[in-house]
Design brief:
The protein is an alpha+beta fold. It is about 55% helix and about 15% strand. The protein has helices at about 10-15, 25-45, 70-80, 95-110, 110-130, 130-140, 165-170, 265-300, 310-340, 350-385, 395-405, 410-425, 425-435, 440-455, 460-465, 465-490, and strands at about 50-55, 60-65, 155, 170-175, 180-190, 195-205, 215-220, 230-235, 245-260, 300-305, 305. The chain is globular.
């Protein structure tokens, strides 16, 4: 078995070779996690849900979140290294750089990667769609490289759900002489203490359904310094404990319209798609972490005269898991490359490559999130009873994998949105053309015929069988793309 299981930076370098963005502090960032961050992360996880201090001694509402010591330091290490600012720095490599750094963060702490994810999506929306004076006021604060950095958040979901935004969003936006004001409640607000959030709301008089939604930027504080956003409570939840998730109230809250109101749903989807790519990164890095934890135990544990890892059945499982990790990474990194190629496109001017990005990202999110759950479960099984004990940290992987399966839309949403992209944008044909240099020609033709036959089914039957289609298509795409990354390795002299 390979020592690469224990090194996210090493695995990135192994898979990407010279295609990895240059001059990234991957080894240094990993070293910080090994020497300092891992212990902080464990402390934060064991502490459970942070608590909220809602008032100061003068009875002023402050809604301050209180974390264990070191949490802020852990956050700042990523921001300082460039999990956000490198995407906007002309001297750096854009999204590929920030997702590579995110891979290392996700390997050690899936929950912590969430603040970076939503901050990136917020910064991208501000950079592309905010009015010039709003962009000049807020974007530099999100790109700071020190403790002054501001965080972002993406708040769409309300109590009635998140997938059907057209029905669920009841937050109202009112245009006044003093600017836009939002009133409503958001129910699942990750990074609830962020200084800025992008928020879905319906302007007064706008039509019902998703076409009536717009996207707004909401600062945590009003211009006079008072609270603009109120945290009702924090969620005590399964899964990640290093990202605070809360219920948020907007009370005539100051806000800034992003883009054109009629383009709101497209802006919302842009935000979600960038986060889905990050979800893919987090899922695959968790898969590697699970593989590492399983390998560490199996390499030491003796059973029936042999190490576990030398037992034929266990050895075969490790071989299968390594192959699956490479496939999931290939699928995920292709979503990164397509995101990097299209993320600056604006609503109303999307290219065919953007629709290729969409379908590949839906496939990757659908596939990698479920694989992460299975890898975490398997790592617990390899560790036996020890895998169930909180003191060893393996059970944490399963908790965190479960939320990765739901974040940014559960499997149902990915499959149905993917179908829509195929039906309306011919995204499957763009996908097959993209795979042609890597896939077996005969197998590619057969898969294309299979997809076309599925799309010709009656609507109810087509939707009912969406999982069957994605369960076939996603691994096919992943297997084809592995050949691309194997070629990268051979070119780098590591075949």
């Amino acid at each position: 078995m390979s020592d690469l299981a224990y090194s996210p930076a090493g695995f990135l370098q192994h898979m990407l070779g010279d295609a990895l963005p240059h001059d990234l502090p991957l080894d240094a960032y990993e070293s910080w996690w090994e020497t300092e961050g891992r212990a902080i992360s464990g402390t934060v996880d064991r502490a459970g849900t942070p608590w909220i201090r809602q008032y100061d001694r003068q009875a002023n509402r402050v809604d301050e979140l209180v974390f264990p010591a070191g949490y802020r330091d852990m956050l700042l290490e990523g921001y300082g290294n460039g999990v956000i600012w490198r995407a906007f720095d002309p001297a750096n490599e854009g999204l590929t750089a920030v997702y590579a750094l995110g891979y290392i963060a996700g390997y050690y702490d899936t929950g912590l990667y969430c603040p970076y994810t939503v901050s990136l999506a917020t910064a991208a929306a501000v950079a592309k769609y905010a009015a010039p004076e709003v962009r000049a006021r807020y974007l530099p604060r999100m790109l700071a490289r020190d403790a002054s950095v501001w965080q972002g958040a993406t708040w769409m979901t309300e109590a009635r759900g998140g997938s059907d935004l057209g029905r669920a969003v009841e937050t109202v936006a009112q245009q006044t002489r003093g600017g836009w004001r939002l009133t409503g409640e958001k129910y699942f607000c990750s990074n609830a203490n962020a200084e800025l959030a992008v928020v879905a709301a319906r302007p007064e008089g706008a039509p019902q359904g998703v076409r009536g939604l717009a996207l707004f930027l909401v600062p945590r504080y009003r211009e006079d310094g008072s609270l603009n956003v109120y945290i009702r409570r924090l969620k005590d939840k399964i899964a990640t404990r290093s990202v605070p998730t809360g219920e948020v109230e907007l009370r005539d809250s100051e806000a800034y319209l992003l883009g054109q109101p009629e383009h709101g749903i497209y802006l919302i989807m842009e935000v979600l798609n960038l986060s889905r790519v990050a979800n893919n990164i987090g899922s695959v890095s968790l898969m590697q972490s699970a593989l590492g934890q399983a390998q560490a135990f199996a390499s030491e544990r003796q059973a029936f005269g042999k190490r576990l890892i030398d037992q034929p059945l266990m050895r075969r499982q490790f071989e299968d898991k390594w192959r699956g990790l490479r496939e999931a990474f290939a699928l995920t990194w292709e979503s990164v490359l397509l995101a990097d190629a299209t993320w600056r496109e604006v609503a109303g001017g999307y290219s065919e490559r953007f629709h290729l990005f969409r379908i590949l990202t839906h496939l990757a999110k659908y596939w990698t999130a479920e694989q992460a759950v299975q890898y975490a479960k398997w790592a617990m099984e390899v560790n036996g009873g020890h895998g169930t004990l909180a003191e060893f940290g393996v059970e944490r992987l399963l908790r965190e994998a479960m939320i990765a399966d739901i974040w940014e839309g559960p499997p149902h949403r990915q499959a149905l949105d993917g179908l829509e992209a195929m039906e309306r944008k011919d995204a499957h044909r763009l996908l097959f053309a993209h795979l042609a240099p890597y896939a077996d020609a005969r197998a590619l033709q057969a898969m294309q015929a299979h997809v076309e036959a599925h799309l010709a089914l009656p609507q109810d039957e087509k939707e009912a069988g969406a999982f069957d289609l994605f369960d076939t298509l996603a691994p096919f795409v992943a297997t084809a793309l592995v050949r691309k990354y194997e070629a990268t390795e051979m070119l780098a002299g590591r075949s």
